[in-house]
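Q: Okay, next protein. This is Putative TIM-barrel enzyme from Paenochrobactrum gallinarii. I've checked the sequence twice, so it should be correct. Can you predict the 3D structure?
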Amino acid sequence: MSAYRVKLLAAPPLPSAEEEDVIICPGLAGLPRHGLEVAALLPISGINDRALSLLENGDQLPDASQGNEHWSSKTTLALMMADPFLLAQSLFEPLRHQKIQRITNYPTIQLHDGDSMRGFESASLGLTREVEIMAAFCEAGFRGTAFVTSLNAARLMLQAGADTLILHPGLYLRDWRVRATSAKLIDQILRSLRLDENLKKQILIMRPDGYGTELDTVFTQADGIVEFGF
C-alpha cells in the first residue's frame, strides 16, 4: 500500500488534482526554492499577506457552485500563527465564505531554536502565540492541523483542539549527522505519542527539501507524509 501523502503547495491545485489532500501556503510563491523555509520565516516575507488576499478575492479558489463541493474537505489553509498582526476572529467569516474548514500553523515559528526562539517566546510571539491562535480557530469550529517540532508542542496543540499533527524535523542542514539526529528526535516524539492509547489523532511527518533516507524508518510508523508539491 502506498503511503498517504499530502502536498504543500503555494497555490490552489488545478481541478484535475482536487482529489489529493493539499496544504496551501500562498506566501511561499516567489520565494527562492533553495532555503525556502528559511526565507519564509524572514519578517520581510509578509508570509500571511497572500493568504489573506486569497480569502478576500477568492478568484483562485474552486467555485463550490460548479461541482467542487468536495474541494474544501481536501484543503488546508496555512497561516503563520506567530504573526503579531494576525487576528484570527477577522478570518472566521472569509474562511466560511470560501468553505475552507481546516487551517494549519505554517511556516511555524518553532523552526527557530536556541536564543532566537527564547526571544520570540519572551515577546509572546513563539509557540505560546501559535497555540493561542490554533485554539481560537478550533473553538470557532474550524479543524486544526498542527506543525510541531517537539513533544511539548504536540501536547499543547492537541489541548488547543488540533486533530492532526505534522511532526517537522526542522530546517534542512547539509550535515547529515544533524539530519540524522533530527530524525531520531522525531522518531522519539512519534513513539511517545503512540504510547498514549487514548490518542486517536492522525500523525504525519514533514519531509523538508534535502532530506533523504533519514526519515524512512519514521515514515513507516506514521499515518502519512507531507512534502512540497511545486
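A: Here is a summary of the prediction. The longest helix spans residues 176-194. The domain at 5-228 is CATH 3.20.20.70 (TIM Barrel).
Q: Noted. On to the next one.
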